[in-house]
Each structure stands twice: as C-alpha cells, then as structure tokens.
Write a structure and sequence with these properties.
Length: 265
C-alpha cells in the first residue's frame, strides 16, 4: 500500500473515531455512512492499481496549490521559497485548513518561525502567517474546509449550461447530463459527480446513503470524486463480469434425433 493509500486510511480512522465516540447512540444514517466509508476505502485500495492517474486525485493537493498561489502572487514571496515553505509546513501536519483555522498563538509562532528560517523576512513571515490563517478560516466557514466544494459549485453551473446546449443538438437530457459531467471531469479536472449514474446509484442503494452523503464521504477522505467515480465504475464492471451467464439449452441436431429414434426400434 502506497503513502497515498495510507492517507485514506488515516482519514478513515479519524472519521470512524468521530462516529464511534458513542456507538450506542449512533443514528442509522451515521452507521450507514461509516459502512459506506469503509467499503469505499476497500474498493479504492483493491482497484486503484488498475485505474489511470489523475492530476488532482487528492483534494488537499488543490488546497496546497492555493497556498502556493497566495504566497507567490498574493504576498510576493519568491516561488522557490513559497514551495519550500509549503513543503515544511506540510511536513509538520500544519497545512490543512482545519489545522490552520484552529491555529492558536503557539502554532502561529511556529508557522512564522518556519517561514523566517527558510529565508522569508520577519515582517513578510508575520503577514503570511496572518493571511494564511485568515483564509483557512474563511474556507472552513464557507465550504467546511473543503476548497473543492467551491470548484464543485462552479462546475455544476458549467455542467448545467453545457447540458442545455448538448440536449438541444441531438442528445437526450440524461445523456447530455452525463456527457457534460464526464467531460468537465476529464478536461477541467472538476470534482463533480453524476449521482444518478447506475454504478453510483448501486453503491448508494447498497449502503442506504444519498448522493450528497457520498459526496460528503469523499470530501472527508479528501478523495477527488472523479476518482471515486472511476473506482465505483470499475467495481460495477467487475461485478457484472463475474455474474454467471445463463446458457441456452442445447437443441438436438436432426441427425442425433434420427439416430436415437433408430435405436429405439
């Protein structure tokens, strides 16, 4: 299992711990969500090796890229120093939106010290720390700490517009919706999902969760829903291939029937 797969496992453990603090009082929805989360992790680990790579397979990489952009174009930090700073902050598990949003004075001092040590001036380091913490809090307040939800909101608007165009030029509404979302997944790396696709519905029905709850699971694992789509599609195809085929009853050839009739005489 690779380091990326371990990231999913760690997220799963955190999610399970949250759900199981009082297991006797778990709602049915929470139990279903936990079962679906564990199933999704197992499917990811079983099938990932057979699937094509994706640029933004893990959504915290998108947040990391936003932090780099803030440092470079927002605060004027030299690109090499910006990426070096992100690497060090990530190494201390301080880069996530949740870690930054909860930063107390001690953590802010640590962040500022890191920035100074890699070559950013004292004033610039102080400004960068304040800006980073403030933006992390805004992302937490606006999108629950998941920057991909901003892209998903915009992606859904784009998908609806594209679907409208496609459906008036020969495609049915259902096909146009699927085409629009698949194209935006592949061409623009947008974290959107056609929750009414058969393989998605199959998984949701199996664990009695909604499409929104499936999206929530993916976000809490920081797994791009385009990868989730590929995993569930691949699993559905494997299930379909493993189903036994009903063989038609073999009909007797005329010569065979005649031969048997002759033997009875």
């Amino acid at each position: 299992m690779g380091a990326r797969a371990f990231r999913v496992v760690r997220a799963s453990v955190a999610l399970s711990r949250e759900h199981r603090e009082d297991s006797e009082n778990l709602t049915m929805t929470a139990k279903n969500t936990e079962l679906a989360t564990r199933a999704l992790i197992d499917l990811y680990q079983d099938h990932r090796q057979f699937l094509a790579p994706q640029q933004w397979e893990w959504e915290d990489d998108r947040w990391e890229e936003l932090v780099v952009a803030i440092f470079i174009d927002g605060l004027g930090i030299e690109p090499r120093l910006a990426r070096d700073a992100v690497r060090h902050i990530r190494g201390l598990n301080l880069l996530s939106t949740s870690a930054l949003a909860r930063a107390d004075d001690n953590r802010r001092d640590l962040l500022q010290t890191i920035l100074v040590q890699i070559g950013i001036g004292q004033k610039g380091a102080a400004t960068a720390t304040s800006v980073l913490v403030a933006i992390a809090r805004s992302v937490s307040d606006t999108w629950g700490g998941h920057i991909q939800r901003f892209l998903r909101d915009c992606g859904e608007i784009m998908a609806e517009k594209l679907q409208e165009v496609l459906s008036r030029d020969g495609l049915g509404k259902t096909q146009a919706r699927k085409v629009a979302r698949l194209w935006l997944q592949n061409a623009a790396n947008l974290p959107i999902l056609a929750v009414d696709d058969p393989h998605i519905r199959r998984f949701c029905e199996q664990y009695d969760i909604s499409g929104d709850e499936l999206l929530e699971i993916a976000d809490r694992l920081d797994l791009n829903v385009a990868m989730l789509d590929d995993v569930l599609s691949f699993d559905a195809s494997r299930v379909e291939m493993s189903r036994p085929r009903v063989q038609p009853r073999r009909r007797k050839a005329p010569s065979e029937t005649k031969s048997r009739s002759s033997r009875r005489r």
